[in-house]
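Data availability (excerpt). The following record was deposited with the supplementary files.
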Amino acid sequence: MSVRLNYVAGAFVDSTGRLEDVNPSDTREVVDTFAVADKALTDQAVEAAASAFPAWSRTSPETRADILDTVGNEILARKAELGALLSREEGKILAEGIGEVVRAGRLFKFFAGEALRLSGEKGASVRPGVDVEITREPEGVVGLITPWNFPIAIPAWKIAPALAYGNTVVFKPAEIVPACGWAIADMLARAGIPEGVFNLVVGPGSVVGQALVESSKVRAVSFTGSVATGRRIGAACFESGKKVQLEMGGKNPLVVLDDADLPTAVEVAVNGAYFSTGQRCTASSRLLVQSGIHDRFVAAVTERLKALKVGHALAPDTQMGPVVSAEQLKQDMDYMRIGSEEGAHLAFGGEVLEREAPGHYLAPALFTEATNAMRISREEIFGPVACVIRVADYEEALAIANDTPFGLSAGICTTSLKHATHFKRNAAAGMVMVNLATAGVDYHVPFGGRKGSSYGPREQGSYAREFYTTVKTAYTLA
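Predicted structure:
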């Protein structure tokens, strides 16, 4: 099998280390083998990006737009192929893999347009005869560090705006799912990205990520991943004066009121909690259910989970794929034990499943009789696990929904316009859903949360310019 190389200074570059990308649906299959970058190669990538920045930052926005649009078009044209690749390396079912690829393509095309839409302001000073101009300029070299759960969409929503606004990039994908990130590098190279403008370095965060955070030539770092790692990166960036953007997860509530349409609430909960194997930072991991509908809701969700087909990500009848890795599966199983020890009732699932191919298969788990003080209700599990918390009324549901160190996404199922309107205004989350799953957002609007979920400017949409550009105010004596 050929080795996929790092992309540095306009060339694919080898290194001594090797990394195997293993299929979680069938651990006998190696999706591809990748060269692993060390600190020296990462530093070379940063140097290349720094050297390329002056010219790229002054390139015509049409040039940047054309390159991004070319990549977006290729991603969309290859959606079936890239969707299958994504499903093989991450474990999403094929429909979800293709859907994520389409989103990545749309992101590149959206930011191709944003490259042409960036504008400034001009006005009069309070001093007579003086003009004021307010413009936006790129930050410089940007380090992008992405997680394993969205191996093409999250890289796309970081890479595309960084390049659109004139920055140069050093990109580190999650080392357990590098194939989709490598595909983006290959497409950018063939689309004519100038030497050094975009660089790909594959390797562990303790080496590659650390080098990006420590480099004095990296002016901004965008990270999506765990809370612990994000806090370390944030502290290090603050110490060195870097701009930093952090997305670090959630413990998202879905409120189900007595007046909710039961079939809608069940589908919203199952989609939000278990699709993509629950491995979404926006997953509905806390189900806050009012007493009057509680028993019917639990029974209906349990029946829905019994019918959910867990299997190989590429099998046409699979509805939920495997957990991404043995390490993640162990973490999920640890929380099964923790939840039971805390006094929650494991109403369904939570056991490791055997399938025809060896893989990391887990039955979707539903805990009932949970309280909001339990660890399973406060810590991000990042698997197909949800806990039901019984609430007396809307007021208690809202209080518990907001009683969390996170604040990414929150949802409510209700037919009451009064409660829906109040929840949208008072839920302490960056994104709020009414009769929709907490997971699932559009690519052209801002993404991000509050409290421990996010730090820094929002991602996606026109709001991305807040992170990838800096504001300059210039005065001229007329």
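Summary of structural features: The radius of gyration is 23 Å.
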